[in-house]
Design a protein that fits this description.
It is a single chain. The protein is an all-alpha fold. The protein is built from one helix and no strands.
C-alpha cells in the first residue's frame, strides 16, 4: 500500500469518528 492509501484511510477514519461523535453529542 502506498502512502496515499494510508493517508486516505486515515482521513476516512477521522471523518467517520467525527461524524459518530457529532451524532452522539448532537
Amino acid at each position: 500500500m502506498g502512502i496515499e492509501g494510508v493517508l486516505e484511510q486515515g482521513f476516512v477514519t477521522t471523518s467517520a469518528d467525527k461524524l459518530i461523535n457529532w451524532a452522539r453529542t448532537g
